[in-house]
Automatic annotation (TrEMBL):
Protein name, per record: Ribonuclease P protein subunit p20
Domain of life: Eukaryota
Location in the cell: Cytoplasmic granule; Nucleus, Nucleolus
Subunit description: Component of nuclear RNase P and RNase MRP complexes. RNase P consists of a catalytic RNA moiety and 10 different protein chains; POP1, POP4, POP5, POP7, RPP14, RPP21, RPP25, RPP30, RPP38 and RPP40. Within the RNase P complex, POP1, POP7 and RPP25 form the 'finger' subcomplex, POP5, RPP14, RPP40 and homodimeric RPP30 form the 'palm' subcomplex, and RPP21, POP4 and RPP38 form the 'wrist' subcomplex. All subunits of the RNase P complex interact with the catalytic RNA. Several subunits of RNase P are also part of the RNase MRP complex.
The keyword rRNA processing appears for this protein: yes
InterPro entries documented for this protein: Alba-like_dom_sf, Pop7/Rpp20
Phylogenetic classification of the source organism: Eukaryota, Metazoa, Ecdysozoa, Arthropoda, Hexapoda
Main localization, broad class: cytoplasm
Length: 170
């Protein structure tokens, strides 16, 4: 299980200095915000020339070995189907805990699934949350024959939520 402590490395006294540096970089044209908003949006600051490459994102690695009570939450799956899968695991009696895993934009959905389960079971279950950051690798596929293939790495936030029973059900 990956665990990480959230750290805030910048003190309040350093923030105005950092903001001043960013303003100076923007004036020089070196720190342009991306079209999606923010500075880089998780791309790690690497700018890919779209005229030379197409980006193929690799799927994130799953925890090894995958257990039957591991549920990987995604934005593409039906929300109610994910909740019913969790409910079936609890109601089968085989598992007293399940593990929800969410990466990137599916983190809010994973948290919502855990909260829905807690509401559905009316306080007979609880949860613990671990956050971490993983590094993903993207393949850069050249659009012409003269450009060599390449790779880029990026960091993505992830959450692991352990949902467990607090009351034994006979």
């Amino acid at each position: 299980m990956r665990t990480t402590t959230l750290e805030f490395t910048m003190s309040l006294a350093q923030q105005p200095q950092e903001q001043e540096k960013l303003v100076n970089l923007e004036k020089q044209g070196k720190n342009k915000p991306s079209p999606k908003g923010g500075k880089g949006c998780g791309s790690g600051g690497v700018v890919v020339d779209k005229k030379k490459y197409t980006v193929k994102k690799r799927p994130p690695p799953k925890s090894v070995p995958q257990r039957p009570n591991d549920i990987y939450i995604s934005d593409r799956s039906n929300f109610k189907a994910q909740i019913s899968k969790c409910q079936k695991l609890f109601e089968s009696g085989d598992f007293s805990e399940i593990f929800l895993h969410g990466i990137g934009s599916s983190i809010p959905r994973a948290v919502n699934v855990a909260l829905e389960l807690k509401t559905f079971y009316q306080g007979t279950i609880d949860y613990s949350v671990n956050t971490s950051t993983i590094q993903l690798i993207d393949d850069l596929i050249p659009l012409d024959d003269t450009t060599p293939p390449s790779q880029q790495s990026r960091k993505v936030s992830c959450v692991d939520i352990r949902v467990f029973r607090t009351v034994k059900i006979p």
